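The protein record filed here:
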Amino acid sequence: MIKFHLRAGVAISLVCVLLVPNQLALAHTGYAPIPIFTFTTHPDFPMEDFVAGRLGILLQSYNPRFLFAAYRNLTGAKFTSAEALAMKRSWEPLLNNRYKSSIAYDRFETNWREKWFRMRLQPGKDPAARTQFERQIYAESYLHKDGHYVFFENCADDAFRKALLTLRRRETAFGKHSPRVQAWLTAQDEVFENCSDAGRASGTHIPVAVADREPALVRQDRAYQIAAAHFYRGDFEDAVSRFSVIAQDPISPWRGIAPYLTGRALLRQAQFDAPKGRQFDATALDAAAAALRSVIADKSRREWHEPAANLLAFIEIRLDPPAACSQLAERIARRGSISGSAQSLTDYLYLVNEGREDSMLPNKVCSPHDDLTDWLQSFSGSLSNRFQHSYSKWKETGSAPWLLAALVNASKNSAQTEELLAAANNVPHVSPAFWSARFYRERVLVQKGRLDIVRQELDQDLRHTEGLVNPLNQSSKNLLLALRARASANLEDFLQFAIRTPSGLVYMDEYNTKLTDDDKDPRDDYMRQQYAAPHFDDDAGAVLNNFLSLSQLAEVLQNPTLPDGARRDVALIAFTRAIVTENASLAEKVAQASIPVAPDVADDLNTFLRAPTKQQKDFAAVWIILHHPEMQPALETGTSRATAAGKIDSFQNNWWAHFKFEAVAGGDDPDYLYYLQWWNRLPSHLKPIFPEGKIPPPAFVSEADLSAARNDWNKLERLPLAGDWLASRTLQFAHSNPNDPRIPEALHLAVRATRFGGSDAHTPNYSKQAYQLLHKKYPSNEWTKKTPYCFK
């Protein structure tokens, strides 16, 4: 979609507010919601449907976590209910990862470290205590090794969970206000002081042992706290020794976890005490692996089997990464193999990711020796010979995953294409591969120019998207609509498929997927209603903005199949373009056609049509545009404005900025880029529709229409910023017609337009001229009183 990139910069003088060129101040510091027509990094919500096998159209750009879920379903190894829950837990940390203020504790997510913080931050605590507890729960430690820093989480969330649960049990055993409980809390504070580097540097925070006369439970708790403090402090040999003693105490409540923590301490020792130039200390690493294997072999310590297995996998990954990758791939490909935290999947995906930042592993770890890794690399396009390889694997296996891998990498010139097209056409509706096979088949047919077949088949498919075992989600439906639009026979046919319903609304990016109360804006309800409504997608914007003549835009606004909002947008765009390109005959034609679809502008449009002279008609057009900041000569695709018609938008989506046929900076700083020709930077969700990397003119657009559209762009490229254009024309009319009763309001609006529509530093100061004329000629007018400043 077309975007404004602006920065704030305001200074007040006696009469004018100085604006650095192209640095317009934002009245609102938040972000407008972004409508997502097709999610490109993950499937539609609820994502549980995807894991259950309702895949829709599978994209190469999906996060490997979801490509893995697709692979399992395509091979028939469907997820068990326990696995589905583990998968959900594995993707939830990716979503809604918005910054939370460190002050607004009451708005925190309720994890265990924050529960501990709120429990310890009791009323009356002094600022030093708050600082202490903040240091504990936000601790980040690091290892400085071989000239670089490796940051890690020293005290995990589970440590605070265990501390809180232990506190509750001891309060039950000894009483909430018992001196023994208070002594335990004091000792635990000492333990957590070692979580951060700052805490460790401030002194030796090791709890002292308790007297022998204390009950056994108190002594056992303290022994555990002392061992844990040494562990967090980095005294690993001492920690191993103390945890080993605890493991031998048959009545200690910490006997079960102690061997596991021994393995953890040995593992950290192996990392931190490695000889120079080595990743690990081999002796400590072998000892860690042996300790963890003993935990897994001990049936009495079943509670610690899974975390021990996860740490053992970590060790095995470092000892032989390629072998670990293949073993993990073969394990997780089997039904029932994912459980709990899905750590085995996380480990595998970590190894597959060649973009990871981990100096302890080689860049390329996973070779395609197993089917899952081979398919992931082939489907996502990371192999140079991916088409031929995928085709050969499909011929060898006859499997659905490899059919899709061959189809997604096929092109019109690929060998064996016809064989693949026939196979795709025979995939049954009940298969999780159906919609992907259909989409990639039709895409190849489009590339081959068989548009009649594409129209026939997609029209049939789009009539039967509901009530299937494998229904079509909204993202996938929008992909089919976009592909059908590309195959359109004429403009009317194109418009049937140019309007699409967003799959969701987000802030910032696809992973911030939930609009919450934290995101509230005074215009929130309006924005959600407008942005969620069916609207033109970006491919339609490329066609309407760049390949259609003004006369064709007039046809578009009269198309009765378009939603009223979309017709109104096109009407005002066509009218504005006709005015600024000085196409008088089409301006009248468009104005006449716009009256039924823009009733809020109808009176002013009639005034424009009835104006007796060219000068009066020109000013009538300027009057309309001054009152409607949503008017611009190009379509903003994806959404309507965040603000209602006729209102200034505080996100600075008002009128227009400079137009160029290529993306161009409005200054030396790339942050000021204003994209109109954004299809040269193809939106990611349209890349599956246009694998060539650009949106070409539709086949139904004639050379004459393309020439007319290009002629309009030549004029638009020379168009000043909206504020300057509006103010200069208002001033011209005001000087010639000083007694026109509309002049004071028009001058006020012209000054406002330079504030919210832009004013170039190299043009005359129209804002100041309009301000001075208004105050000089009309000092008592109500519009003069509403104009205390000008802007430049």
In short: Residues 331 and 337 are 6 Å apart (CA to CA). Confidence is low (pLDDT under 50) at residues 1-14, 19-29, 98-110, 663-679.
